[in-house]
Structure formats: C-alpha cells, structure tokens
DNA sequence: CCAAAAGTGTTGGGACTACACCCATGA
DNA sequence: TCATGGGTGTAGTCCCAACACTTTTGG
C-alpha cells in the first residue's frame, strides 16, 4: 500500500445504551446522563466517552459505564458503529455503540461524583437526545427485539431468581405483544433450561409465584450440541 | 465534560469480506488481495483501506471495493468493529469490517492497476491472512450463516434469474447441510416471493430447469405487514 | 369470603419431515 | 435409448394457537 496521502486520524468514542427492566412498574427503561458542558449542554445523552490509546474498545465501554454510572459486570454487546462525518459538530468523531442489559432493581445508580446526573427513562418516553443518540437508541431497541427471541439474553434483565410472570412480562414489554400464559410456560419450561426453586415470591396480593433460575451451564452444553433457544 | 487529557486520536480503516457464489463449481468463495508492501508483504488480506476525513464509513467501504476490485453496487452490510490495540503492528488502527455479497459469475475482477493481485478463494481453503483478518472472515461466515435463514439475502449471491436447484445449492453450501428438494421448493414457493419466468436454463446434461426471479417489491410490502422471511 | 394473580390440559389445524417415481433433455 | 438432473404428492408427526376453570394468598 503506497500511501500518497497522510494517514488520516480521527477520534473514537464508545456509547452505551443501557437497558434496565423496572419490574415493579412493568416498564423497559434506558439510562441517560445529562451533559454538563457544550456541545448539547444540559441535554440528555448516552453514557460514553473517548477510547484511550492502548485500550480495547469493549474495555473502554466497560470503563465508561463504571465511571459514569457505577455499573459493573453487566451484559455488554457491540451494537453498531456510527460514523457520519457531521454527527459531532466539533470534529470528526466516530462512535462504537454498545448495548448493555441490567436488572434495574438490583443496581442503584452511583452518586454522580462529577456533577453529571444519571437517570432512567422509559423507552416510550425518551427526552430529546444529544448528537445522533436518538438513532442509536432506535437501533439498539430493534436489536434487542430481534435478539430476545433467539438468544437467552432476557434473563440478564431479571434478578437471578425470577418468576414465570416476570419473564413473560419482560417478553411482552420488549416484543410489544401479549403472549398466552399457558403456551409461554410450556415453551419455556419445555426447553429444560430453568431450575425450579423451592421458594416463592410474595408481593402484596394474589397467589405467590414460584421462583426459577436460568441454568447457564446447561444452556451452553445444549448449544454445543446444536440446540437453538427460541421463544 | 471537562477534559483533563488530550483527546486521543487513532486511524480508522474499513475491511470487506466479499462473498461470491461460484455456481459452476458449487463453492462459496471470498475475495482476497495480495499485499504489496509491509507489514505482511506478500500475504493475502481483505480488501480495505483508510477512512478519509469527511467520508462516511460505509462510503469508504464502497470506495475501497471499487478501487481494489472494481466491484460496484453490491450488497454491503456492516459486520463488526475490531479494535484490539495490537491488531496492527504499526500503530493503533481500528477497523470497521463489512461483508458484501456478489454473484461471482457476473462480475469479472478488474485488472489490478496497482500491481496488487486479487483472487477468489474457497471459504474452505483460505490462505494465511494478514492482521486479524482470519478472525474477521470467521465472524463474517457466522453472520452470513445466521442471516441467510431469516433475511432474503441469498438472492444477492445469485444471478437475477436463477433456478430452484441453484438456490437450494446456495443454502446447502452456506448452511452446511443437505435439504430435501421437495420440501425446499414448497417452503420457498409458498412464500410467494418468486416469479416464475417463461424461460429455462439449459446447461449440458439433464432436464432444463425453470428460471425464477426474486420479487423485491412484493417482499418489502409483505415485510411491512409483519411477514418474516424464513427458510 | 372476596379479590387478585398463579397455575394447569386438551384439542384442532397448519407446518414440517420423510420418502420414490416420472419427466425432459442432450449426447 | 440412456444417463443426468428436474419436477412432483402424500401420509405421519409434531408443534403451535386457542381457550376457561381451579388454586393459592392476603386483606
């Protein structure tokens, strides 16, 4: 490759769409951060920041998540790379977007040390966002919808021990359609990937629901043998 | 965002895994380019190059494809962004990988103007590749396999007019398993997305096969109404 | 005992699998 | 007329969708 031109450079950031399930309110939410400086000062934006020299991209995503929200050890997956030359008014900045799945009720947001506030917003009520972040959220939602049916990632949004109605509500929220309770149960239990616990979850009214746990180890074994998760 | 550090910069490239179907030899191939300069001089590598200032990433992928292989107007989709700090021995270079689908028999490779040679290799017989390109090919193959069943992208690998056995062979090659001829036909024709032409394809021996064409317009309409392609 | 939510089986229809013979064509 | 590959139908099975009543629990 003879290079008759300077090797061009640019800056690279990561941005994370953090999905959290609010089991109490039966609502799917995303985590946003209010920008403290221009551009888009005061606007809400995805948590993220610059990839440092010598730092792997995914590592940068984990680091920014921890720094800006306190979240650690979450499920994280690369989503898409956005590089429109005009997506950042300051300079040419390309961003590698990730999406993360967390259980909202088990994680409390860290006190924001740097005067930036973080907050959860319903995916149905996202405020105006900085940069092209609205587009990124759109792509993330589409990916989540598509992937939920073919990979057992939904469990990442629930507590370790969860009930069948919780799992079903999650699927109904993300896929945006009602599911038959009996058929859903049969389908899920039929895969043999849940272990039934000797506990129930009791909140307020109604009959107590059995608790289940996802059997990660068993899933991996079955997957190797050609099994495909599908709801 | 107060920035106590310099905004870091790096270089961004695109790399393309170009899949081509060799209908005659019943073989799935990828297009490689032999490097003329270090690093990895003489080694085979994916076509690609630097993203220029002010250039959209996808645009860069199209440009490099045209410059290095003469291919134009091909199906192109972003695959994954690879950014291991040590993936390029010279410097920190992040690459956005794409995959492309072309009909190998309809495209002749352009005479290589810049002394670099391009050639098709069977996916089952890929030579040692430069950088982390072997990994990129691996990810691309996995994506192609996964996507072929749920999106009508297989047609991109065939000529506009194709026969049912050609289509079936394509699926068998990519999915790496045999399919029942009668069931395959039923499934495909049952979706009502192919128009049967009043022509047949005759090569050498055996009964002539009917030619079909994919109805792109009809597919888009059905998709809007919630239809899902699946083989 | 009442309200609220969890849990449970059966049946009909559509889709998938498996499978073997005839047809058209060129040599 | 023969060799080669293309085209076709049916029967059994499995999976999915539809659907209503009983059980448990707290108040």
**What does the radius of gyration of chain A come to?**
20 Å
Give the quaternary arrangement of the chains: homodimer
Helix content of chain A: 25-40%
Largest interface: A-B, 30 and 31 residues
List the helices and strands of chain A in order: EEEEHEEEHEHHEEH
In short:
With 231 residues, chain A is of the alpha+beta class. Chain A has 5 helices and 10 strands, in the order E-E-E-E-H-E-E-E-H-E-H-H-E-E-H.
What does this structure look like?
The structure is a homodimer of 231-residue chains. Chain A is globular. Chain A has helices at 57-69, 133-148, 164-175, 181-190, 216-224, and strands at residues 11-22, 27-34, 44-45, 48-50, 75-82, 93-103, 118-122, 161-163, 194-201, 209-214. In chain A, strands 1, 2, 3, 4, 5, 6 and 7 form a 7-stranded mixed beta sheet that branches. The first copy, chain A, has 231 residues and is of the alpha+beta class. The structure holds a DNA duplex (27 and 27 nucleotides).
């Amino acid at each position: 490759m003879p290079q008759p031109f300077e090797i061009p450079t640019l800056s690279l950031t990561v941005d994370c769409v953090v999905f959290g399930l609010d089991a109490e309110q039966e609502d799917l939410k995303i985590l946003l951060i209010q920008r403290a400086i221009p551009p888009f000062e005061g606007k809400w934006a995805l948590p993220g920041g610059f990839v440092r020299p010598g730092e792997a991209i995914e590592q940068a995503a984990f680091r920014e998540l921890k720094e800006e929200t306190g979240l650690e050890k979450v499920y994280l997956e690369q989503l898409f790379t956005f590089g429109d030359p005009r997506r950042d008014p300051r300079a040419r900045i390309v961003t590698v977007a990730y999406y993360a799945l967390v259980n909202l009720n088990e994680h409390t947001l860290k006190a924001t040390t740097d005067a930036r506030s973080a907050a959860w917003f319903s995916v149905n009520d996202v405020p105006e966002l900085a940069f092209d972040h609205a587009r990124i959220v759109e792509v993330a939602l589409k990916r989540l919808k598509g992937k939920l049916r073919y990979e057992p990632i939904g469990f990442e949004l629930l507590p370790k021990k969860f009930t069948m109605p919780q799992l079903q509500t999650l699927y109904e929220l993300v896929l945006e359609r009602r599911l038959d309770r009996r058929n859903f149960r049969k389908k899920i239990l039929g895969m043999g990937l849940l272990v039934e616990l000797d506990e129930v979850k009791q909140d307020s009214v109604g009959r107590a629901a059995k608790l289940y746990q996802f059997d990660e180890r068993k899933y991996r074994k079955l997957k190797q043998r050609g099994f495909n998760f599908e709801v």
